[in-house]
Specification:
The chain is mainly β and 343 residues long. The protein folds into three domains: 91 residues; 106 residues, no CATH class; 91 residues, FlgT, C-terminal domain (Thrombin, subunit H, Beta Barrel). It is 14% helix and 36% strand. It has a six-stranded antiparallel β-barrel. The longest helix has 20 residues. It is globular, with a radius of gyration of 26 Å.
Amino acid sequence: MKTRSLSVCLLLITLLLSGWLQAAVELNEDIPETYIVKKGDTLWGISGMYLREPWRWPELWDVNPQIDNPHLIYPGDQLYLVWVDGEPRLRLRRGRDVKLVPNMRVTPLNLAIPVIPLDQIGPWLRANRIMGVDDLNNSAYVVAGDQENLISAPGDRVFGRGPFPDGERAYGIYRAGQAFIDPVTEELLGYQAHDIGNAKLLSSNKQEVTELEVTRVTEEVRIGDRLLPMEERILDATFHPRAPEQSFEEGYMIAVDGGLSQIGEMSIVVINKGKRDGLQIGHVLAVYQSGPLVFDKVSETNVKLPDTRAGLAMVFEAFEKASYALVLKASRPLKVMDKVKNP
């Protein structure tokens, strides 16, 4: 009986795998036979020329002995499409001659084509974070300026109060901004924390009031600004865009950089889902707009039209209850409170 059950399980697994393998990537119409990589290109943009679903780009580059790491392609490289066992694959010709002699050729990694435009999100990520309510309430803060100044600049001394972790000498100065509220549950998801500057510890952090020196500012330091230990935030160029493994419900774009109402391609948005919901860096989400309510003249009743797919966004930073995402594609103007779902 156990042998028969095992055989049935193996058969089901085989059928599932064969069905998955047959789900080939769909190519766009009028794709280029060859493409010369240009400065400013991204893997997402290149894959979007070839694929209807650009987040499936790893499958387009897969089984390719010429491109061990698809993140390391450079301007001038020539890409061309071939078919392997009925599946499309991209091949690469280097745009320069390589002499077959025993020497070393070093190519700067920062010249490689990234997955998405890092210069678009790098400065934003360094200057912003989402702080949970407890993190904000339990952090140290500026209680006074030197000589009772209300604002401070580089070189000035400030006094902080609250928890200063042992061994931490460098601190970031942040100011709490917009509060993010879940539109469905009305839960407070956190606060936008803006980078104000940096400070270094001057006195012992065991005292009730700690003395610090301001070392960098983006604007004047104010009383009440938060003092957080410096954390190394490395922006990884090797994003792996992919669809979420689980289904997302009641996801929304709840805010956009600059507080604008209209959202377009390359806009940075806040999503009301985070790590606790299974959202991870690299997850691609489809953006949908709610269908309007129309009057059916035949039945003389109101009927709601289905949601319309209007774009794609990719998560580039996930916090506990919310996330930052970059809008990669928009077929129409998007807006705050548009829905995000599995692509």
